[in-house]
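Hi all, a correction to my earlier message: I attached the wrong file for Glutamine_methyltransferase. Here's the right sequence:
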Amino acid sequence: MKQAKLKQAPVPEYDFTREQQKNVYLPDEDTFLLMDAIYNFCDVKVNSALEIGPGSGVVITFTALNFQLSTYKARDVNPTAVQMTNETLVRNKLSPNCELGDMFTDLNQKYDLVIFNPPYCVGTCESLGVIDKALSGGANGREQIDKFIKGARGVVSEGGLAFMVAISANDIKDIIKCFDNEGMQAEVVLEKKLPSEHLHVLKIQHQK
Ligand SMILES: C[S@@+](CC[C@H](N)C(=O)[O-])C[C@H]1O[C@@H](n2cnc3c(N)ncnc32)[C@H](O)[C@@H]1O
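and the right structure:
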């Protein structure tokens, strides 16, 4: 892992209502680490991007601005997150291209850059509110991560990249092995140890 002399990604403008503050995952350490990883380790030409689970919308907005993209899309299962992401995009003079949607369902296009900061916490979100779906990833925190691993090959263009956040409790070694089984090569490009969890950002590409 190369972590020396990182450039810090510029954070786009965003704001939120009381309802959004209550129901949307707002930018946090993992969000900023993900943007820093994209900013420092995206070493391919990117013409299009997809973010799964944009929450506040700052990551897809940063990506669209930084790579000057005309083709980008975001989708979230949380309607309030969809609304906030579209507001963040518009606030930064971009088109509101976020839709309500579950992971890769009914996507018929491949993207050069695919981004996911999943609900990675260990625990269940059964009968919990919508904000918990932003956090809780089931028994080992892998519910949505495993869906992403299975589908990534079908949505990342040849020569393209994906960036995904995970924590130690998700079993990083096993995640890399599972990507490998799906024909994708994954490596950790950034890490940050917090008191509560050990964040990792994985860079994923088609096996050569
Ligand atoms: C940890 S938050 C990350 C939000 C934002 N990307 C960030 O980095 O701050 C996870 C987001 O994924 C969304 N999400 C969870 N499962 C999803 C799925 N299957 N398809 C689309 N979005 C999903 C949640 O609603 C939430 O907004």
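Sorry for the mix-up. The beta strands are 48-52, 71-76, 98-100, 111-116, 156-167, 184-193, 198-206.
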